[in-house]
Amino acid sequence: MRRVVTDHAFDIDAAVPLASGPTASIIRLRAPGSGVLLEVAVTEEGRRQIRNEVAGRDWAGSAGVRTPAVLGHHPLGAWMMGECAAPAVVDIAYVEAVLEQAERIGRAAVPPPNSEDTRSWRSPRTRRAARAALVAAGGLSVSLFVRSRLAYQALAFDVPVHGDFYDLNVLRAADGHPTVVDWEYVARGPRFSDALRMWSCLPDPHLRDRVVGHLLGECRSAQERAQAGVVARWMVVRQIGENLSSLRHRSAENLAHARSLLPEALDLAARVGAP
Known about the structure:
Layout: H1 2-7, E1 16-17, E2 26-30, E3 36-41, H2 44-62, E4 70-73, E5 79-83, H3 92-107, H4 128-137, H5 142-153, E6 159-161, E7 170-172, E8 178-180, E9 187-189, H6 193-199, H7 205-218, H8 222-245, H9 252-271
Antiparallel strand pairs: 1-2, 2-3, 3-5, 4-5, 6-9, 7-8
Helix pairs in contact: 4-8, 5-8, 6-8, 8-9
């Protein structure tokens, strides 16, 4: 790490940590005036995340997807240094660029890497009853949650997907173009998953309409349209369920947004004949 830090003129003594929660598995450091980011794992989960991120960015580059370059990393995931990116302005130009990146991911000929699963929202069997009770207490129908999840899981997992494709993971590179980070969940999944994950977080209805209009316009059959409805419904229902059932990762803002979007997702699913 010392050599990489020196090569990229990263002043580690002046570096400041970016904001993170008290249970963060990775510390991210940025030095004033530097265009690079140093990430240091503090737990085994953090080391898995860094290993996945390095493999995912390498895969993305081979698939023609824009992602910050990895400038150096520890082979066991202890640390990684990469190019910086900044939050993007979420407007129609952003949405158009995002749809292009999502399509590039889905069209990739090279298979995605076999990442090590670090998703905290997948609970052990012994905790599922407790989480279901929290979901029900929060006002989300457990039957809707289960039906939506089963319909999603019944789809063909046959295209590469980023796995967590939303505005905080599709950022702005130094040249102003979108660049995709957080590749730790890249795998195979159902078509439309990435674009509709982004749709589920967009704040403005006209931006969401642009995503839906584009995707439905790409559908070649009623079956594909129904699949888009299944994916859209699950993306919203899952967000509500995750926030209701996880005290550690709950976000009042995300929960409120997902709740407000649920009628729109259910209406879309009904219009396209989602099972």
